[in-house]
Design brief:
Elements (H helix, E strand, L loop, with lengths): L7 H16 L5 H11 L4 H13 L2
Helix pairs in contact: 1-2, 1-3, 2-3
Length: 58
Amino acid sequence: MTIQPQGDAIRKAVKWLSEERQADAAADISRLVEQAAVKFDLNPMETEFLTKFAREEL
């Protein structure tokens, strides 16, 4: 079962992060998460979710 994130911003951030990782698998995950947090104006809880999502996708 996959947990779906709540809110449009986090969904867009997850999609963006996935696309960035596909384009460059060697990209620094922490840097991408930071960029997504700023780009999509994520709150700390959403940023934490995105970090966990990114680490699980490895």
